[in-house]
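no rush on this but wanted to send it before i forget. what follows is a protein written twice so to speak, once as letters and once as structure tokens for the fold. mainly i need to know what kind of three dimensional shape the backbone takes. thanks a lot i owe you, the record is right below.
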Amino acid sequence: MRRTLAVPIILPFLAILAAVPVSASNDFGVTIEFYRDAHKQAELMAAAGVRWVRIDLAWSAAEPEPGRYEFRTWDRFLDSFEPLGIRTLFILDYCNRLYEDGFPPSTESGRAAFAAFAGAAARHFRGRAAWEIWNEPNLPQFWAGSPDPAAYVALARAAAAEIRREDRRAWILGPSLGGGTFDFKYLDATFALGLLDIVDAVSVHPYGAAYPEAAAAFYDDVRRRIARHAPDRDIPVVVSEWGICGGGPGQGGTGPIPSARSRNEPQVRHPAHDLVQLAGTHHSLAFVRASRRAGPAETGVSCLSVN
């Protein structure tokens, strides 16, 4: 659920990539748009403690003609960020007018086309990125038409198979659950359809939390559902996007985003990682999504610099 805000918002990302230790105190990141020039501010981002970037790898932009893939737009980000120790999470997302009349893949041929795109991306960026399959497919504004858990799981299965064919060590997230309420019906459906056999971590966007601490109960519910469907596996929960408005509920935005004001103190004085911890998370990376009223990197850097 993407909203334009007048202030930066916090995006916690809860997981460990491969065997690399993660520290909640210094593994911060920024979510950036692939069509902007945040890569030019990589040194500023690194100096501010940024350790991850999260970027849409949009299917329609990466495959302008059937079977022809163009990743130069995203090369510039990795070429700028990697030398500074900043890692990348790519979101493989959205439709392509070349297939399925521009709707989310729901046929065998459409899924094969999306999977081929995912495999080509994994081959091109082998060992250099983590992968999230789609963004908030439970919402009609991101899964055009009617959200369909079965269609999403089938797409994730096909895409993950091609990603792993190209990169056996790839780290894959899903279902990127979003919305203003906790959509357990959709999440349960994906689990029942075998999503936990496909992904390495479960990604969610807990916009339904009215305040930071309230998200803890949501995470517990997600973990209980994972344990019920995969009792013998330790599958982490990843918060790959979450909005916290620093000025009060919905201020400066287009929808009801919870306030960053904690119930434990009258005013927020926590740096970003403390807000993550207030939400009941562990092994956390914190993403800062910048306001579109300023350049993504400048706003993210200013936010991370202030305690």
In short: The domain at 9-305 is CATH 3.20.20.80 (TIM Barrel). Confidence is low (pLDDT under 50) at residues 1-26, 247-307. The radius of gyration is 18 Å. The longest strand covers residues 50-58.
